[in-house]
Amino acid sequence: MANPFEKINQEQTPAMDDLSVLSSSYVPENFPHREQQIDSMVKSLSSIMRHGRASNLLLYGKSGTGKTSISRYVTQLLQEAGKGSIKVVYINCQITDSTYSILVYLVNSLSERDEERIPPMGWTLDRVYSELITRIGQMKKYIVVVLDEIDKLIEKNGGDSLYVILKASDDGKEANLSIIGITNYTSFADNLDARVRSRLNQESIIFQPYNATQLRDILKDRMGGIVSHTVVEDSALNLCAAIGAREHGDARKAIDLLRISMEIAIREGKSRVGEAEVYKARDKFETDVIKESIMALPLHSKIILLSVVLSQKFANRPAYTGEVYENYKRICEEISVQNLGFRRISEILSDLDDIGLIVSVTKSMGRGGRTRFIRVPDHIDSIEQHILEDEQLSTFKGVKLTKQEKLSGLEDESHQDIDDIFNSQRSD
Ligand SMILES: Nc1ncnc2c1ncn2[C@@H]1O[C@H](COP(=O)(O)OP(=O)(O)O)[C@@H](O)[C@H]1O
Ligand SMILES: [Mg+2]
């Protein structure tokens, strides 16, 4: 018989494949609303070709504002124009995250042959450093090092790590080296030692967040590369742009939403993407992020979060810290795990708040007391489900929960009032 799967191939693959221009690894050739930033980068880097030297550059901007892809795009053009006289090395400091590993990575990127590569560990830092200086000398090429997420390097290794790398640009004899640092944190340079700051931040370029209109242009431009049978309605495109704009002007979010909406439409056999698909995509997106962040939590954080979920559901209002603590202990007992102390639990609750899985509000009560209310803001059922997917919780069958009926100073307030306090304080 004719292969029935082939039919699916023919039906779906063309449309699915085309969506690759909306994938995160795709570097477009057009960057609407970034002409100015590209221009500044080009001006600054052109001096390599004119004068054999460029200033170090620092690119700032929130995530999804185009820093990484535009750096890759511009440095690629530079390397091509240099016709073999310029070498670009891109390093993501979140992945290659120590001074040592960066120096080794640099040495190996400057190795022309495999046998020149050095081992990933075992050498002293000094030896790797002097090897780097030798290689820079032998290269006879201008080297541009892109340090993406450079703040992660400082966070983990302090400012000295950067100093060592900056120093390499002076110690190299013949060839030269300059650095393009990229960061999401505008205040990043403030925390640096003055000598490092002035060296790194010779020129800086800001990538402002995109507004909804700009994001719409970007989406339209990226869509231009798709030959698709799926029609995206204007209202759907606008909604993706609006959501991306609300999310600190994030093009990544807007593009991801559009891609997921189209995938949903294709999977459901629809030929149009409307607002409904975008809302579905947003839900999927949020729950995926939630799932990932829960999976990454240590056991006790999961148990504490589970306690918040169960306490909140049981009381049908935000939970009090006391309830969360009490129910946490009961869950630990149920699954035979030693519970942590109150102080540690408070710290974990603050961490969960930082991640955004819970929201907590502290209210001053009469007579000088203060009480913390805790709430899971969204997706409470899927959060519970993801926590219970942990094998260590597989024996959990449920516990008898406790609920505080009254709290001194709060006797006259109904539960609805607690919700109101919450909402008013949250929106501050
Ligand atoms: N002006 C733009 N035009 C087209 N695509 C863009 C533009 N700005 C950002 N993008 C896309 O948005 C996504 C996120 O950009 P990225 O460069 O990774 O941001 P950042 O490094 O600032 O977090 C990438 O897919 C990128 O190609
Ligand atoms: Mg980036």
Question: Which class do the helix and strand fractions yield?
Answer: alpha/beta
How many runs of DSSP E, i.e. beta strands?
A: 10
Helix and strand run? HHEHEHHEHHEHEHEHHEHHEHHEEHH
Q: Considering the protein shown, what is the CATH homologous superfamily of the largest domain?
A: P-loop containing nucleotide triphosphate hydrolases
The level 1 CATH classification of the largest domain is Alpha Beta
CATH topology name of the largest domain, in short, is Rossmann fold
Number of helices: 17
Q: How do the strands of the widest beta sheet line up side by side?
A: 2-3-4-1-5
Helix % is: 40-55%
Give your account of this protein's structure.
The protein has 17 helices and ten strands. The protein is α/β, with parallel strands linked by helices. The protein has three domains: 4-23 and 210-293, Orthogonal Bundle (Helicase, Ruva Protein, domain 3); 35-207, Rossmann fold (3-Layer(aba) Sandwich), CATH 3.40.50.300; 297-426, Orthogonal Bundle (Arc Repressor Mutant, subunit A). The strands form three sheets. Strands 2-3-4-1-5 form a five-stranded parallel β-sheet, sandwiched between helices. A three-stranded antiparallel β-sheet has the order 8-10-9, sandwiched between helices. A two-stranded parallel sheet has the order 6-7. β9 and β10 (370-375) form a beta hairpin. α10 packs antiparallel against α11, α10 (234-246) runs parallel beside α12 (275-295) and α13 (299-315) packs across α14 (321-334). The longest helix has 21 residues, at 275-295. The protein is globular and about 75 Å long. The N and C termini lie far apart (66 Å). Bound molecules: adenosine-5'-diphosphate and magnesium ion. Adenosine-5'-diphosphate binds at residues 24, 28, 31-34, 61, 63-69, 218, 221-222, 251-252, 255.
